[in-house]
Amino acid sequence: MLARGVFLLACAAFALAQPPSPTYIPQTKFARGQDVQPTYEGWIRNADGSATMVFGYLNRNWEEELAIPAGPDNKLEPGQADRGQPTFFLPRRQTFLFRVQVPKDWGQKELVWTVTAHGHSEKAYGQLTPQEEITERMIMTRGNLNPGEDDPNKPPSIAIDPVAPASVASPLTLTALVTDDGLPKPRAAPKPRPGAPPGQSNSAAAGRPRGLNVTWMQYRGPAKVSFDSAGPILVADGKVVATAHFAEPGTYVLRATANDGALSTRADVTITVKP
């Protein structure tokens, strides 16, 4: 009996020591009230010997969008606090968003990005370690490690037509001009599953645009910008037209991303919004 009791106690202790099955771990999603975690994505080696550090962020909120101006709550160190980092934080993960060039004699110093939201400060530490070196192609493919040496596809080019100062009362028309080499060829839409209503596919991606497209996002600004359609929007006749609405005056930066289905490029526009 003693041996059996020892065996049962050992089994119980073993069971308690094991992590619970992932099936039973509660997953909590917070709509708001959470902080922002800046992220260091890696660095690019430049031809002149300097380096470019690349950062992104994780807004832990699923709905809340945070405006955090450059300054004590949104700063880079050492040096100037404002290095062009985002000041408007969209929900969830946003990758490869902004860059800071450091001189060739930077060595192993750290560049630290600190973001404070809802009373919590989070940091990202940029350093030129060999294992964190990345390439432009990795950014264009959102992290794909394939160097693409045998890929004839070239990234699209994008430019944004100049815009006049906007006002809170009037919507602003944005025009992105896009060119591409036509590669890769757009894939055909998935076939509908048997018995499905007309137009319904068995793929969640069925409703996504297939071909060269543009997506708009807010990068900086004191308040939320609303788009009639942020995209993805298919390019027609070499351009995409969108409409933006501003709730408050101030200086805003909006970003358009052109994607050909494999590679993407970005362009920014700065907009002054009057009362």
Main features:
disordered N terminus; four-stranded antiparallel β-sheet; five-stranded mixed β-sheet; mainly beta; 39% strand; 2 domains; Immunoglobulin-like
Describe the structure.
- The protein is mostly beta strands.
- It folds into two domains: 36-134; 157-185 and 208-274, Immunoglobulins (Immunoglobulin-like), CATH 2.60.40.10.
- Helix content is 8%, strand content 39%.
- The chain contains two helices and 17 strands.
- It has helices at 2-17, 136-140, and strands at residues 36-45, 51-59, 66-67, 74-77, 88-89, 92-102, 111-117, 120-126, 157-160, 166-167, 172-179, 213-220, 225-227, 233-234, 239-246, 250-259, 264-274.
- The strands form five sheets. A five-stranded mixed beta sheet has the order 10-17-16-12-14, with no helix packed on it.
- A hairpin with a 4-residue loop joins strand 16 and strand 17 (264-274).
- It starts with a helix and ends with a strand.
- Mean pLDDT is 87; it is low at 1-26 and 199-204.
Uncertain spans? 1-26, 199-204
Number of strands: 17
Instruction: Please bin the fraction of helical residues.
Output: under 10%
Order of helices and strands: HEEEEEEEEHEEEEEEEEE
The helix/strand class is mainly beta
Number of folding domains? 2
Count the DSSP helices.
2
Please describe the topology of this protein.
Blueprint: H1 2-17, E1 36-45, E2 51-59, E3 66-67, E4 74-77, E5 88-89, E6 92-102, E7 111-117, E8 120-126, H2 136-140, E9 157-160, E10 166-167, E11 172-179, E12 213-220, E13 225-227, E14 233-234, E15 239-246, E16 250-259, E17 264-274
Parallel strand pairs: 10-17
Antiparallel strand pairs: 1-2, 2-6, 3-5, 4-7, 7-8, 9-11, 11-15, 12-14, 12-16, 13-15, 16-17
